[in-house]
Amino acid sequence: MARVIVGMTMSLDGFVSDRNGEVGRLYPDMEAMRQSEQLHQAIGSTGAVAMGRRSHEMGRGDYTGYEFQVPIFVLTHRAPEQVAKGENDSLTFTFVTEGVERVIDQAKAAAGDKDVTVVGGASVIHQCIEAGLADELHIDLRSVLLGEGLRLFDRSDAPPIELEPFGVSESPGVTHLRYRVRK
Amino acid sequence: MARVIVGMTMSLDGFVSDRNGEVGRLYPDMEAMRQSEQLHQAIGSTGAVAMGRRSHEMGRGDYTGYEFQVPIFVLTHRAPEQVAKGENDSLTFTFVTEGVERVIDQAKAAAGDKDVTVVGGASVIHQCIEAGLADELHIDLRSVLLGEGLRLFDRSDAPPIELEPFGVSESPGVTHLRYRVRK
Q: Which end of chain A, N or C, is less surrounded by CB atoms within 10 Å?
């Protein structure tokens, strides 16, 4: 049964991009990240990816170097005219305008026995957690205080959500936190 | 040489109290916390404590059961008329109205070879970090999303601050994160 895993890299003070909208300080060593055990595990277990429209646009139409060469489901209000391309036919894009539940439903169907990995942005991850769609929350906590920027967890009217930590590991400058979301 | 250690318990989404100002969800098992290896280490290495006025008031005039039976320095605008009491003469209160640098100076002098532990609140910890007074940041990260409340790290105009993680450990429901603050 596919798990739905939501997660992003976040500064210790809770930001997923800095005051200028940049993410450089959160990923000071992309090469180390690409070679990390944690990413290799995620690639191996991920059968489909879900993301928001702005996250999709960060790929700038070229997903040939993208870690997850799998079907990608994009939550958007309007499908774009041009669709980005991956390395081969295993990476496909599906644009979903009917809300986050429908995105996850379609991604689960595509993932089969493997996991659905929700890579961001903050809004999609938030929606997944609040709608009870997320089975696990994976936070890569970068050891920096950014002071300002876009928060992963902005204020929410929803009741508190308990998490069950099931694993913590470290790579240089990053603490990998793994939680099950209690439903 | 005394280190200045600032730290609090924080929810994964960055709050040190919930939407009602309560901290119960952050400390679901006070007894486990009191018996934790991490707290015992902190008690052994702490020579003086610094805190803000509201943190001091949370003691409600009775510090007989307080973990740190050492000299306590309180940052305040006005010294209170009644002073709380500890278990014995080793816990004393000094009220400091001349700002956070003066609080830390006095606490260091009292701590001797031992550490100064800044136990909160959020504002005092923030001031210590931004003024370059903090050597280490110890965050006990509680595995809960509170959604709303008082943030430990609220937005700041200060430039980003790099941290060096030097140890992570776990106890039930809490990840103990330890950082050196780069100056």
A: N
